[in-house]
Amino acid sequence: MNAGAMRATCHCGAVELCVTLSEPISNARRYDCSFCAKRGAAVVFAAQGDVEILKGCDALMLYQWNTRQTDHYFCSRCGIFPHDQHDNPADGYAINVGALEGAHPKDHDPSPWIDGKNYLPDNHRKDEP
Asked: What is d(CA 47, CA 99) in angstroms, rounded to the nearest whole number?
């Protein structure tokens, strides 16, 4: 892994990513759209090209819904979501803080809740800190 890169894994270890975040973990936040609210995971972002799947491509399953603007990935073996990938390359990846080695969501609570119900590609970052 390159300097500044972090390892992210699912619970069972079948999926492993090398991630270079584009922001500090202290920026972790949750979204309130119907899917993200039920999932409840805090996320941080990485730019396109800064996420490499080291192992487990065959274990990753894809979930899409509604506008299909985001690819939600989860491990088919343990069910943990390591990352989401957005259609717009400028949006990059949402990385599950709980999947990052050495990070724990409780260390960054309370994480702010962001308006995901009204997500539109052109305005979704305006409300973020």
From this structure: 17
